[in-house]
Amino acid sequence: MGKSGSGKTSMRAIIFKSQLAADTRRLGATIDVESSQIKFLGGLRLDLWDCGGQDSFMDSHLTAQSSTVFRAVHSLIYIFDAESTELLTSDTVYFLKCLRALQDQNPTSSAPQPPPSPASASAPSPTSTSAAVTSSAGNGNGGADDGGPTVFVLLHKMDLVPVDVQQSKLAEFEAEVTRKARESGYKGGLRFYGTSIWNETLYKAWSIVISHLMPSLSSLRSHLTSFLSLSSASEIVLFERTTFLVISSVTNEDDAKDTEWDERRFERISTMVKAFKLGCSKIRSPFSSLTITTPHYAAVLDALTPETYILVVAREPASIELNIRLARPHFAKLESIAVGR
């Protein structure tokens, strides 16, 4: 959810429909609510609702449609336009009304939730858009916090904000909006991220959203850690096949000490590979795998299961492809177990 023009539909088109940022200029405004279902790893199905942000639609969402839009919500993604002149006035008023509706329709959301992790405000990013997501996959509570729905707040179009003030703007925005939310009586969790469709910050934020929705994520991570150790790899990253969002990653700490790691490397890989896949589809040459070899390391990106791609980075390139091939049956079995649950 979010006010009209905040960037919700562009965001959805880039993440879930593989459009390039430059192509989103042709998208029209969302009328009322556009819903879509997306299938993910382990039988997880997302019901993603893109809610129109014009005042008339927002008023309708909050009154006549309140029980339809806000009931049984797993997560609310609310987008703010970083360049809006009404960012902390009328834009925030609508957000607070949405929190109130969310709390009214999901009474457990009034229970206190643990504070967001320190990393939640680390990546600068712009735009203001919001979507309601319901999860139908099954680990009992769909991956939601015990206190009710989780609210992700994206300050969007951060590319329009000078680089040297992006962090401070996000921090001030987070402090002010959180203060107003608490004063209005909302006690649920709020997680803030800065985003832009023109860089990897959009993938960073949405990877966190999607990983929050994933069932049995801790179990999956433990299996990736075992794979890392058995294959003597430096790093392993698991991507969702369609969106190329990062599901999970594990890193060899000893190798990390000897190397300067780019903190945004995963999201940059997502952005580049997705653009490359789109280029392949335009010339009708389906993307299969990618191998990079340098004097210092080798990296192989290949399909792991029908729902995932895996990136393995190692100093010894010879065995990477063989290890991925041997690991496929094991991780496919993990997916089938998740579906059963």
Automatic annotation (TrEMBL):
Q: Which organism is it from?
A: Rhodotorula graminis (strain WP1)
Q: Which residue intervals are annotated with compositional bias (Low complexity) in the record?
A: 119-138
Q: Mark the transmembrane ranges.
A: none
State the Gene3D superfamilies in the record: 3.30.450.190, P-loop containing nucleotide triphosphate hydrolases
Q: What is this protein called?
A: GTP-binding protein
> Which Pfam families does this one have?
Gtr1_RagA
- Its family? Belongs to the GTR/RAG GTP-binding protein family.
Give the start-end ranges of region Disordered.
105-143
Describe its assembly: Component of the GSE complex.
